[in-house]
TrEMBL record, chain A:
Transmembrane residue ranges: none
Domain ABC transporter substrate-binding protein PnrA-like per the UniProt entry, residue ranges: 33-334
Family designation: Belongs to the BMP lipoprotein family.
CDD domains from the UniProt entry: PBP1_BMP-like
Keyword ATP-binding among UniProt keywords: no
Protein keywords: Cell membrane, Lipoprotein, Membrane, Signal
Protein name as it appears in the record: Putative ABC-type transport system, periplasmic component/surface lipoprotein
Organism in which the protein naturally occurs: [Clostridium] ultunense Esp
TrEMBL record, chain B:
UniProt entry tagged with the keyword Methyltransferase: no
Compartment list: Cell membrane
Cross-referenced Pfam families: BPD_transp_2
Protein name in the entry: Putative ABC-type transport system, permease component
Assigned GO CC terms: plasma membrane
Gene Ontology molecular functions: transmembrane transporter activity
Keyword terms of this UniProt record: Cell membrane, Membrane, Transmembrane, Transmembrane helix
Residue intervals passing through the bilayer: 12-33, 39-58, 65-88, 94-116, 154-179, 199-223, 278-296
Entry superkingdom: Bacteria
Record keyword Flavoprotein present: no
Amino acid sequence: MKRNIKLFLLIIAVIMLFSLTSCGSEGKNSGDKTRIALLLSGNLGDMSFLDSAKKGTDEILSKYDDVEVRVIEMGSDATKYETNVLDFSDDGYDIIIGSGWQLQEPFQNIAENYPDTTYILFDASVDYEKSEYSNVYSITYKVNEASYLAGILAAGMSNTEVIGFLGGADGPGINDFLVGYIEGAKSVNKDIKVIVGYIGSFSDSPKAKEMALAQYNQGADIIFTAAGSSGIGTLEAAASQGKYAIGVDSDQALLFEKSNPAISNSIPTSTLKKVDSSLVRAYDLYNEGKLPIGKVENLGLEEDAVSLTDNKFYQDIVPEDIKEKIEVAKQEIIEGKIKVSTAFGISNDDLHSLIESVRP
Amino acid sequence: MIQLFDIIFSTGFFHSILRVSTPIIFAGLAAVYSERSGVINVSIEGVMLTGALSGVVISALTRSLWISILGTILICVLMALILGLLTLNLEANSIMSGLAINILAQGGTIFILYILTGSKGNSALLNSMQIPNVELPFIKEIPVIGHVLSGQNILTYVAIIVAFVSHVFLFRTATGVAIRSAGENPDALISVGINVKKVRFIALTISGILSSLAGIFLSMGYMNGFTANMTAGRGFIGIAANAMGNQLPLGTLFASLIFGAADSAANALQVLKIPTQFIQMIPYITTILGVFIYSVSTSKRKRREG
């Protein structure tokens, strides 16, 4: 028995030794290259957000010779996030990029101890009121602007003057889509009605399909779905009813092009957060020494950080006059003539009165 | 208020109840068989999820509905038998083993999906097949009821038929009686020379088949494709339906329809001016209420008997 315990301890010691050495050997300083670590709060293969971030760093790699990138898929175990940030900070990486709100806490806890490292947080922001965070640059996306354009498209194409919205959850992140969508729809048709529903899940696609069918039954003929994987259910419902749905996060029409063209033909467009181009932009600015580190930047149509997908389905399905309206609105938003509201600044009451104003 | 009645008393609403209830009926019946035989089976959720993915993958690869259904049933039965192996032969805790299978299924399905399609979210890139909806020849003509009953997915009818067949099977056949005795009084079975373990394996096999049908319905009937974690707790709601239905096949059918109705109502009521948080609570409140009513009635009965 005693010997067993000794053996066990020995094994543990050896394992720990190995893990230590592997930590130390990771990313030894290789010349004067700028070393970037991309820490993903999930796994690649999500066909949207995280894949887009990887695409961004790939682009940086091909654009600049003196760059070295490590991509770490940290999975869904949140306890690993802070350790990973700490490891790469300790290793003296020049830039550490983190994805989403999951990395906000770790950055806030660690960044200030490593002033020589630049931290980039996308799709979330550290709390600059809490502390200075002079080496953290945060990027947020004006999805409300892309949704405004989606609203113009939906209201323009609707014959019933009723359109739908299906969100994954009732929170500011999703409602930011909704606010822009309603405002855009109202800009085309003052009397437009919007049925608003929340699935309460980002993975329950059957439930999304059922709720979408309910909205179509109640008169909606085009639904904007901002609900991650659940949204697939909305797209299927649209195809089965011969109605339309607007996708989110990735070009969802192209996704189904080969396997199920009926679904693709029901998706005039999808709204995108272009994480890739926002990261390339950030590195370009960093390289020129112009990156506003220590601040949050809210990027929108002007910086090409959000958009509507323009593919052959968009070209085929959307009538010319609506395309024109979208183009005009896009220019006016970029020039600042149209100010789209956001769910992040407004009170709950204002949000509800906005939803009330278009309730069927 | 008028709007509310318009929504509730529409044939579309009742049509959707049957559709929404189908996976819960299958999962509930799966729970009936395993619990009747004395094995607590919480792995239904995971087996359903695996079934949902296998159906999509096999149908995309073979382009044959029959092969995909049979293959999926085989895989799910295998999983149910693994639970049997763990709990019956190795005497592991059945809840722990069931949860282990659920976690394995949750990660495993995403892993396999990723290897095959490069996506971790859904099977949009796979051209999978769908089990068709059917119009019932004579029933279709009946006003109102015809519209509700006809035009459902084949598996919806299968689920309802299986519930009635299970009632006869469990209470009128020797194997059914053996399954019930294995749960209620295994010693009695031993005394007449029947192998309890074997009976429980038979029950788990049936449970696996029913779970696989629940999964197939989700990804090949309800939807035409797989999305990660698409079962979303329906397996557990099935287990609750079994508890509320007093472990009776027809009781479980009835309880599943109640859950389905609550869920459909929540889906349809999104237009009304009710806070979404409240609407999303409806299915779960119904579940809690149902189980509460059930336990009150059983404890009363026990007191009377005691």
